[in-house]
Every structure is written in structure tokens, then in C-alpha cells.
Amino acid sequence: MFMGTLLTTIVAVALPVLSPALRLSYSEALWVQAAYVLAASVSLIPVGRLADRRGLTRFLLMGVGLFGIFSIACSLSISGPFLIAVRALQGIGAAFMMTTSVALVTAVFPPEERGRAMGLNVMAGYVGLMAGPPIGGLMVHHLSWRWIFLVNIPLVVGILVYGWSLMESERRDRARAQAPPTGLAAFAPAAPGSATPRSAHIHLDWPGTALLAAVLLTLLVPLIFVPFWGWMSPLTLGLLGGFVVFLVVFVVVESRVNDPVLDLGLIRHNRLFAAATTAAFLNYAGLYGVTTLTAVFLEVTQGLSAQRAGLLLLIQPAFMVLLSPIFGRLSDAVGSRVLAGGGMLLAAAGTAQLGLLPSPVPEWRVLLALAFVGIGMAAFSSPNTSSAMGAVHRSQLSLASGFLSTMRTAGQGFSIALLGAIAAAGLGPTGGRVLFLGEQASEAAAATFSEGYKTAMFLAAGLLVAGALVSLVKGQRQTQDEALGRRPSSPDIPSATVKEPA
After folding, report:
1. 3-state DSSP helix/strand/coil percent for the chain, to nearest 5?
2. Tens digits of residue pLDDT in 154-198
3. Exposed, middle or buried, 137 (CB in 10 Å: 0-12/13-18/19+)?
4. pTM of the full predicted structure?
5. What distance in Å separates the CA atoms of residue 340 and residue 487, rounded to the nearest whole number?
6. How far is CA 359 from CA 350, 351, 365, 454, in A?
């Protein structure tokens, strides 16, 4: 979790230095980030299906290895197209890590400790978000942009070395699970919910996988690039129209497949999981663009330096890092729905405060608003993730984690596209360049952006309120395993790490 978020923010900081060094065109510079996000998003659900069948630990370590190999390849880039290609491959490795890390935490902790564990997992991701900008800035200033891709290599090596012992334990557990029972155990009925031996042959639904990739690409590509293309451009409208067509075809085809790449029943018949993933989409749709837009607002309309604006923005992730473990532990005691819903309402209050900022802006008002956003995000993230993962059977943990991550990614793209388009609507064709490339705006343009920014913040608050209502949807709170009060044995999980509830 830490490695993935760290690299994302480091690359964002280093792009202004990296782009001229590799003579990247305007379009190529955008694709350095987009290729990583798109490759990870398209891979999440298929990789989750495979990991659920072949072993969570194995796929986690495979992802770490791929991530490390292609990080080194990125550091050796000699051209823009080469860097974009290896960034896409690096994104596939990240998908292996993202879809298994949350699934492993869910599998090895009993229900009464899952929230605390999820809080630590989420905290690691937020620490990466905080550490990325200063580390990236130091590296590109004092060393070289190539080092930003090598900063994670010591962690990669450490995880692979330590993880090998877990792989050995997993192999022993798999062999035990697949061995025929002896004595009286041979006549005993299987425990409800217990894992069954899995076939060594994987039959992945390739047509469904291809259709799912088409659905995600036709959705995410226009959402990522709409600030530069415009909502009414033929390219944006054509891709979004393709998204609708591919989505309909995907649902029809997958409804008729015996073993689909995405079991639609996970959404149709599991109200708690559907509510948790929808809330995650709305949360990221409402909040992901807030940091970027607030930074531009402070610099363009208030005249703050990038360093000063960055220091003010640190208040939000600081609260997220400090409070995520606390709210995670609290969700074990009081449940996730109240915390997740209340967290989104707090975040909505924060974004509404940003929409009410006067001019000139007192810095304490910005700090107060972002503190509300940070506290709300901390209260939402780990309880909501724990709720979603606790609502599915352990045989679908990686699939559920991949689907949840996909909804977050879609929410991020939607947030940048929608909030960014509203904030920069009055700037015309140059709006995207002002927002994301740091180009200077005239005094009139700055005033126009200020009004658009405030409108965008109110819309963000509305999305968060809608998410809070979704979080309060009632549903079955326990999976079959939890209702039985046990964590069934699984060949995927090392026995040394499984904790049995008292």
C-alpha cells in the first residue's frame, strides 16, 4: 500500500523535470501517469479472480516482483514511448499488489479485529501520499529524476525475502488441505464455509475479460483527458458512447456465462457490498479532485507560492494518517455504517466550507476546512473497506478487493473530470493547462476560476452527502463464515498467520 501511493505522488512531482529530460510531448507527459492508472484498473478484477484460486500470498509477491522489475526499467528509460510502455507494465504489477493486500488483511484477521487491521493498511497508503511530494522534490533537485523509480527497490527486496517464508507456509497448508482425510475424519462432514481444494487449471473468462477492459478503457480515458479535450469534443463523446455500448454487451454476456470474470450476483444479491462500493465511488468522486483544485485556487487566485500552498494542504493527509487506525479500531466496536456515513458528512462539511471561502482567504479557514475533510476521510476509509470485504465469502476476497479498487479509480477519474470541468469552465480551452500544467492565468481568469472552484466544492459536498446516505443502507452484516464464529482453513493463507477468535 505504501509503495503504490508513494510512487504515484513522486512521479506527479517529478513530471515537470522528467518531461524535458526525455523530450516528452504534451500528450506523452499526460500518458506517463495515465498508462499506469489504466493498466492497473483493467487488470484488477481479472487478477483478483486468479488470486482467489491460486493463492493470495503468491500473487502478492508476484506483483511486488513485477513492480520492482519495471521500476528499474522506468529508471533506465531513454525515450517517452519507452517510459509510457514500462509504466503500463508497472501498473499491472501494482494491480497484483492492490487486489491482494486488502484481501490478505481480511483473510488473516478475525471479524472483531478486521477494522483495526484495515486502519493500519489504509494508514500506510496515506503515509505514502504524504511522503511522496517531499521525497520526490528532494530527489529531482539533488539527484536525478531516475532515482524516483528506484526509491522503492529496498522495500521490494525486503518484502520478497520475508514473503518467501510465507510462501513455504502456504504450500504446506495447501498440501494439507488437499490431502485425503484419514481415520474417523474421513467420515466427518465438511465444515460449513470451509475451503475446498481448487483445481490447478484456471479457466479465465477471456471474452468477459476483454469486454471488461473495453468498458473500463472507454470510461477512464475520457474522464482522465476531458479537462484537455473538453466534454463536447468528438473524442470524448465517442468514447463515452462506446462505454455505454460495451457496458450493455458486458452485462448481457456475463449473465450467460457459468464462470464469469465478474460475478454480477456480487452486486445484485449482496446489498451491503453494493452499498459499500457505491459509497466508495461517491467518496472518491467528491474528494479526489479537491486537493488539486484547492492548490490551484490558493496559487492562482490568492497568490500563494507552491511551497506555501503545499504546507497548508498537508493538514488533510496528516489527519488521515493519524486517525485512520483509530477509526479502524473503533469500527470493530461500533460497526462501520455510522462511521462511514458520518465521515462522509464531515468531509461534506469541509468541502462546503471551501465553497464559502471569502477573498482574501484567511489561512485558518483553509486549514479548518481541510481538517474536516481529513477527519471525514479517515472515518470513512477503513470502516467502509472492512464493511465491503466482510460482506463477501473468503473465496471472493481478491475479486471483491479488485472491484472495490476499480470503483475508487473510476471515482478518481470522475472527480478530476467533473469538478475540474466546473472549476475551469469559464477559462475556455486553456482551463486544463492552467489546472494541471501550472500555466499562469490573467487577473480576470483568476476571478473566473475562483467562482468555478466554489461551485465545484458545493457539488463535491452534494456527492458526499449522497454517499453518506448510501452508507446507511441496511444489509446482511455477516458472511457465512462470520456467522459461524470461525475463520475456516484455506490453502491460500499461511497457518502461522491465521488468528482464531476466542
Report:
1. 80, 0, 20
2. 999 998 888 887 777 666 666 665 555 444 444 433 333 333 344
3. middle
4. 0.75
5. 25
6. 18, 16, 11, 12
